[in-house]
Amino acid sequence: MKNIQPELIEPCEEAESCLAEKLRALAPINDRQSDLLAALEKERRTIEPGEALFEGNAPVNDLYVLKKGWVLSETVNAQGMRSVVRVHHPGDIIGASQVPYASTPYRAIARSEAIVCPFPRQNLVSLLSNSPRLSALLLTIAMIESAEQEDRASVFRRNSAKAKLALFVQQTFGRLRLMNTLLHDRFHCPLNQTDIGDVVGMTSVHVSRTFTRLEEEGGLERHGTFIRVRDESVLSAYSGYIDRYKQLDLSWMPET
User: Fold this and answer.
1) Cα-Cα end-to-end distance for the chain
2) 156 beta partners
3) Per-domain residue ranges for the chain?
4) pLDDT tens digits, one per residue of 4-49
5) CA-based Rg of the chain, rounded to a whole angstrom?
6) Nearest CA to 97 among 106, 119, 21?
7) What's the number of CA atoms in the CB half-sphere (13 Å) around residue 244?
8) How far, in Å, CA of 223 to CA of 219, rounded?
9) Predicted TM-score of the model (pTM)
10) Which of 28, 78, 181, 219 stands the most exposed, by the fewest C-beta atoms within 10 Å?
């Protein structure tokens, strides 16, 4: 392990429950609660880069815990314009936002080799019924993701390319560090410039130019598929970034 770059370490590929590792990063859970989560991850499926996990308008029968890789949830409008609504990292539940609905408008596609654990949506009943603490932690994750989405909406309304790209880098780095505490100042990003542009609402050419400007100002560096955060203050001056995984107050949460 010591010879492997921390940026390339898959944080929970071999864990019994990747979802348990994510929730445990927020608050302690006991063995019984870990077992409840592991029951959702019994089946594994490998998805190749570019392969769709499901298409738009698919029925919401199964959800997927992502154990390895990056997966995009995206939409394509009537004019053929693509929009990436969510970038999924290990520990995420793909399809979670669509639990209340009969079908999903999103297409999920792998951007790197991915391992997912499918489970029937109905299996959430046992987990939610048997553990108020896990229910509260899943609710917390949903609220954090909602807060991050609000941060993006606030920045995107300002229509500043530097702010959009800086926020993308900082939010991505923050989410990856939650699951991989060995990360220091850089991370591996398998997304190309078109993907990033479809996340932040910019053309790939504009993404390239904006990356160059942020590099010139000392905020970050790019080395192939790696992004290094050199000076968070430079990026935050544009993005107003708030790390939504820090300074949590979980005193309201049911005990283990």
Assistant:
1) 32
2) none
3) 6-126, 146-239
4) 687 777 778 888 999 999 999 999 999 999 999 999 999 999 999 9
5) 18
6) 106
7) 20
8) 14
9) 0.94
10) 78
Sheet with 107-110: list strands edge to edge: 52-54, 107-110, 71-76, 82-88
> Six-digit token pair at 22?
């994510």
**Dist. CA 93–CA 67, nearest whole Å:** 10
CATH homologous superfamily, domain 6-126: Jelly Rolls (2.60.120.10)
Q: Calculate the CA 196 to chain-centre distance.
A: 14
Q: How far apart are CA 90 and CA 107, in angstroms?
A: 18
In the block, residue with structure tokens 């079908």: 103
174, two tokens: 């923050």
Burial of 105 (0-12, 13-18, 19+ CB in 10 A): middle
| Fold designation for 146-239 | Arc Repressor Mutant, subunit A (1.10.10)
Token pair of 19 as six digits = 């979802």
Domains 6-126 and 146-239 are alike in CATH topology: no
Give the type of residue at 52. A
